[in-house]
Amino acid sequence: NAGVTQTPKFRVLKTGQSMTLLCAQDMNHEYMYWYRQDPGMGLRLIHYSVGEGTTAKGEVPDGYNVSRLKKQNFLLGLESAAPSQTSVYFCASSYGQGAYNEQFFGPGTRLTVL
Amino acid sequence: TQLLEQSPQFLSIQEGENLTVYCNSSSVFSSLQWYRQEPGEGPVLLVTVVTGGEVKKLKRLTFQFGDARKDSSLHITAAQPGDTGLYLCAGETSGSRLTFGEGTQLTVNP
Fold first, then answer.
1. Which residues of B touch A (CB under 8 A)?
2. Which tens digit of pLDDT belongs to each residue from A69-89?
3. Are A25 and A102 in contact (CB under 8 A)?
């Protein structure tokens, strides 16, 4: 039982390049989330999904796209990377919502955009 | 706009001291969670509080949810170096979304 895994762990991009971050969970969770973490800003929600085939915008969605084609996977795409997207990205998943919304986080992807 | 404000942002104390971290908001939350994050890892849930005025204890950690469910506190008794980490509070907003505070970086020196 690996929990939540993220690929890759580190990446350096040049401005304008594209990339996809992969998140996988083996806990059969319905809900999945992508956050970015910046110094002094805590975790900010980019996009989330409440089930296979669904996606929704979070607090800071601009410049990112997501897809949830399979229940266990949640992909985060950057079509044209910008230096402002330099951050640590965390994926999380949860079984449900409300008081049962314990979110399980992956180890993070550190992205640098030059 | 940060819905949840944590204070202090940084805290450095000696082993054995007590400390309190605060999480405040003008919004009402249906539940509030506390996470701890260590360098290079994702946050890990410590506790969830749901009822206004609720107090939960986890060994030397005591968590309290404000009566109006707008604020919370985390108190650590006799801190140890193993308590070092980033402590994050998160309030549940509409649907399944959590809003996180900016975190309190705690360093406990031996």
1. 2, 4, 6, 9, 30-31, 33, 40-45, 48, 50, 88, 90, 92, 95-103
2. 999 999 999 999 999 999 999
3. no
